[in-house]
Structure formats: structure tokens, C-alpha cells
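Lab manual, section 2.4: Encoding a predicted structure.

Procedure: take the sequence of the chain (316 residues), apply the prediction step described in section 2.3, and record the output as C-alpha cells. A sample record is shown.
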Amino acid sequence: MSDDLVDYYRTFLVESGMEIAMSWTVVRGLSKPVTIEDVVRRMGGDLSTLAERPLEAAYDEYDTSRPMVHIAQPGPAVSIIENNGFQGTRNEMMRALSQDAVLHNVYWQVNGQDRIHYAVRGRQLAGAELVDRDGMFWWGDDPPTLAPEVEALMDADPGPQRAVGMAVIEARTGVQLEKAWFKLPQLSFLIPDPTVVDATPEPPRDEGDPDLVAWLTFADTVQRTRVRELLVDLLADRFDLERGRFHPDSFDDHRALVADLESSGEPEQLAAARTVEVVDDEPANFDAAIVHSRSAFAEMWPDVRAAIVAIARGSS
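Recorded output:
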């Protein structure tokens, strides 16, 4: 990610007229695509109110008890714009929107409070105020899943950094805000009672890694093949096994590797055997593969995980 993207959004904020107060949320489904209709329902919106309205209407008709939300679907993700709104920043709303999905949000208002949020599968993994790089306070279940990218772009001088948040969201989702979109009436809807989403149940607490599951889910076939090759080769090296090099056209070597690993009876090698068995291209198996990999690699896991994310994001 480069400073050019930050500069783009600094210019965008001035030219679009949205520098005073706005919330931008991007939602992308995991096991299946999320549609505009899905998002309207998740936010407690009224589908019958879907209609094109100018962006100014949300500001001019500001009503916290019946907010107006603008929405678009650029590709596989849904982009949610709130002019002078904040629903996308509420913990309850993020929980509802990120069910079986990934959510990124950046928000600011006239009095400051520039913030960024990241949630996956109903869990807020990271959140922070975008003000001072040296004094940033992070919250959430797993702040390191977002913090390094944000802090790398923060200006040394303290002050609002909303353009940084926007640049990070585009870099992670591929969704870009364009000034022209804000100059024309766009699809929008009303939320009769925003508190209805507060009943969305909390996700079960587990030891999973929803951030890594998301990156693997959004990776393409080539990237997933490279991840599988990396894992199997590293396991073979870790346990000094001659067989088990990954070949995309055959799983014979996988079966030989599993047999060798199981023969030892050691916990780490048994976990490695389970890893090999579930390392495939099925998103439904990603959670199990991650759990077993973490046990098999033990102290090596942080470095292995970082290598997996780099491949899945296309940065390695």
C-alpha cells in the first residue's frame, strides 16, 4: 500500500464534500455473496423504502431514530455510505453485518472521533481512533490483524487520519470511493428502528482465527495452491520426512506423508497429519486446517501464519 492512495482520499474528501461527517462500511460474504437486500435486512432496514435519493438528503433530513443509508454493490462487496450517520460503527450493527461476512468501517464526525473498525463472523477483531500514531489505542479481539497496516501510513504529526482509514479499506477490499458517485442520486433506504439489530446473538467464543479464514476464502485458486504447497513442504521439513512434497495433480504423496506422521504417535506429528488431510480448496475445512497447523508448527506458527497471509493477499 502506498501513500498515493492516502493522497487520493485526502483529495476525495475535499472534492466530494464529505469531510465533515461520514461512515463508510464495506461488507463481503464468506460462504456466500452478500447482496444489497441482505444488508438492508441485516441493518433492520425497510426494503420498501429502497429508492434513489441524493446524498444530501441523509444530511438534510438527519434523524437518528430513522436514519437514511446509501448503498451500492461494486462487485462482490456491498458498500454502505452514511452521510452524517454512524450506524455502521455500532457494535451491535457490526455484529449483525459481519455474520458469515467480513466488515471494514471508517467513520468520522465534525467533532473528530476518526475511527476504523474490522469485524469477521460477528466478532470485532480490531478498532482504533485515527488520531496520533504514537499514542493510538486499539481494541477488539485481535488488533494485530489490522494495526500494522494502519500505523504504517499514519502521519508523524497528530491529527485526523480519516484518509488513512479509507486507503486501508480500499487496499483490503478492492472497493474505491469515487467523487462522481457522490454527485448523483444513489440507492438508499430507511431504518425504522435501528435497535432491532441489538438482538443479534453474540458469536460463540472459540480459539479460531477468523481473520486468516477470511484471507484464505478470498484467495484465488493459484494462491490457495501455493498455501497448500507451503504447508505440506514445511511439515515435511519440520519432521525430517523425505516424502510429502505437494503435487497439485496427485495426493499420493499426501497419503504417504500422513502415514509417516501418524507412525510416530507424537502430538505435534499427529496434528500435522490432520493438517495434511484437510489442506484442500474447501473453505469449510479452513478452520480445521488452521487449528491443526497451529498445533503442528507450535512456536513456528506466527511466522508460518504471516507467510500464509502474504500469499493469500498476493503480496508474496
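Check your result against the sample. Strands lie at 22-29, 46-53, 68-72, 77-83, 101-109, 112-120, 123-129, 138-139, 186-190.
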